[in-house]
Amino acid sequence: MIDSIKAQLAPTGVLRAGINMSNFLLVNSKTSTGEPAGVSPDMAQAIANRLGVELQLVPYKGPGEVADGAATHQWDIANIAAEAERAKTITFSPAYCEIQATYLLPADSSIKTIADVDRAGIKISVKQRAAYDLWLTQNLRSATLVRSASMDDSFSLFVEQSLDVLAGLRPRLLDDAKNLPGSRVMDESFTAVQQSIGCLPGNVEAADFLSKFVAESIANGFVAELIEKHGVVGKLSIASPVSA
Of 150, 173, 190, which marks where a domain is finished? Predict the structure, then answer.
């Protein structure tokens, strides 16, 4: 069984793992040799160890670029958030951790609840192709999304154009709020961005292996250990356990 899984996940003898470098909670430092370090790279390394193969990290600027890599088989596994649009070309495991996504409001905002945001005339600054952008695209009915290339750009646009709302991951928004006197991060969250491990469609045995690996990693405390190791306790949450 393991040989067939290795043939699907590491056909070249090396496990190539697509890593989203823009997720500052999952990739938050570097090794002594300059390689990306964090929860996401460590999860990839654990999978490589289980398969008995070397790991090659394939870094991307953002999750959209990671997802695009599926079309040309640039990676064997991809550590990004599972979303319906991405699931058209990637087979995802259940989530191993999640990050709350919410809104930052300017000091003079009259918005009180999450529901208040989805109104005609409301403009929301958002990082394009982030998992929460995909969720908002699918679920908003009246508000307008104003997209930027990066989280820094979306904050700048929010301030410079006096937009109504800035969408983002709660930990990042809490930091942004420190640079905008009087602003506030909403207590409610509009979604939780769930981080999963993806593989190419059609690799049935590989997908089953990854699902079981995630379930085991949650159950035996490995994910919790990584969250503590990389100093993101209270920022990343462990996803609900799944059946192996």
Answer: 190
Would you call 89 helix, strand, or coil by DSSP?
coil
Please state the rounded mean pLDDT for residues 216-227.
97
Pair 65, 128: CB distance under 8 Å = no
Alpha carbon distances (Å) from 52 to 2, 5, 17, 45, 111: 10, 11, 15, 10, 53
Whole domain around residue 78: which residue ranges?
2-97+192-238
Band of residue 229 on the pLDDT scale cut at 50, 70, 90: very high
Domain boundary among 190, 206, 223: 190
Count other Cβ atoms within 10 Å, centred on residue 108.
Answer: 8
* Count of beta carbons in the 10 Å neighbourhood of residue 146: 19
**134 phi, psi to nearest 5 deg:** -60, -40
DSSP, collapsed to helix, strand or coil, labels residue 161 as coil
User: What would you report as the CA-atom Rg of the chain, rounded to the nearest whole angstrom?
Assistant: 19
The strand pair at 123-127 and 165-169 is best described as parallel
Looking at the structure, do residues 19 and 85 belong to the same domain, yes or no? yes
- The contacts of residue 145 (CB under 8 Å, 6+ apart) are 124, 126, 133, 136, 137
Provide the token pair at 233.
């306790």
How far is 171 from 101, CA to CA, in rounded Å?
Answer: 9
Q: Please report, for the domain that includes residue 144, its CATH number.
A: 3.40.190.10
Contact indicator for 170, 100 with CB cutoff of 8 Å: yes
Tokens of 97: 């951790």
Asked whether residue 244 carries a pLDDT value surpassing 70, the answer given is: no
Count of structural domains within the chain:
2
